[in-house]
Amino acid sequence: MSNNEIVQKLWNLCDVLRDDGINYSDYVTELVLLLFIKMVHENTEAETLDKHILPEGCRWSDLNSKSGLNLLNDYKQILLKLSTGKDAEGKLVHADPLITAIYADAQTRLREPRHLEQMIRSLDQIDWFSAQKDGLGDLYEGLLEKNAGETKSGAGQYFTPRALINSMVRCIKPRPGEVIQDPAAGTAGFLIAADQYIKTNTDDLYDLSDKERVFQKNKAFIGVELVPSTRRLALMNCLLHGMEGDEKGVVHQGNALGMAGQSLAKADIILANPPFGTSKGGEASITRDDLTYSTSNKQLAFLQHIYRNLKPGGRAAVVLPDNVLFEAGVGAD
């Protein structure tokens, strides 16, 4: 079974979610909360995951051994434990900040136990051995791409086409030891593509020293994402591709045009597809006081962040609408 076939089978599970009243835009978030538990199980079984293993009582085996209302209630408790690190009585279950970040405020909207049972059975029937050969990270990313093609709401609006990402990464030629940043990370497509480019050119990092490998895994990549649900998808995506980042993960939550962007360390490379439009206040507003030119145009604000945040000799590849090149006023300056 190819990855494309598996992705289609996973996407078909959205029919189950629709029957339970889940909004179309929430399909992928609802699905990946369960899917990630399954993927961690498969990676653990294949001995490809030795860190960030889910705690006892929150594993796939704890789900597929139950049925009915007990299953749904237990699943809700599992999401609570993964989200807070504690059970309903306040007892510590895990102290993994990355798992806490991935499942932050995670809740299921499923109401029918039979629908959860059906999803679990369907996930168990997938040929995970075939999926492992291509990598579960690629499978997960294929699901995000499918979501982007089917809907422009939810995470779809933050997904940059894979062909464009790969072309930009090949042009920029990232190297080991460089800090690579995406201030509008979305589901982390640029950062993952840069990581894969480096791995391809270093024999999956085996050409590097132990110290250099640790840097690549934990310090080489940093992203910022404003939307919590999209950041969740990004953190899962990175972890399934072997990218851990710091204690907050590879992608931090925040507004790159606010304090989160102002506090970022300078990077050797910046790759980005900034959101289009103008600032209209709220969390996404432009609140930085260190930009040379005051503007409500997000693309121009992101451009200022990018050239201010690059190290001397740094390089960037950015997706922008062509009208930015002819913008009057601040754009001309």
TrEMBL record:
Mind telling me which PROSITE patterns this protein's record contains?
A: N6_MTASE
Keyword tags: Methyltransferase, Restriction system, S-adenosyl-L-methionine, Transferase
What reactions does this protein catalyze? Answer: a 2'-deoxyadenosine in DNA + S-adenosyl-L-methionine = an N(6)-methyl-2'-deoxyadenosine in DNA + S-adenosyl-L-homocysteine + H(+)
Instruction: Tell me which Pfam families the record gives.
Output: HsdM_N (PF12161), N6_Mtase (PF02384)
Provide one Gene Ontology biological process annotation.
methylation
> Carries keyword S-adenosyl-L-methionine?
yes
Any one GO MF annotation of this record: DNA binding
Taking the record's annotation, the residue ranges forming a coiled coil are: none
Q: Where is the DNA methylase adenine-specific domain?
A: 132-331
Listed CDD domains: AdoMet_MTases
N6 adenine-specific DNA methyltransferase N-terminal domain spans which residues? 7-121
Top-level division of the source organism's lineage: Bacteria
Q: Which EC number(s) does UniProt give?
A: 2.1.1.72
Q: Which family does it belong to?
A: Belongs to the N(4)/N(6)-methyltransferase family.
What's the protein here called? site-specific DNA-methyltransferase (adenine-specific)
Recall the taxonomic lineage recorded for the source organism.
Bacteria, Pseudomonadati, Pseudomonadota, Gammaproteobacteria, Enterobacterales
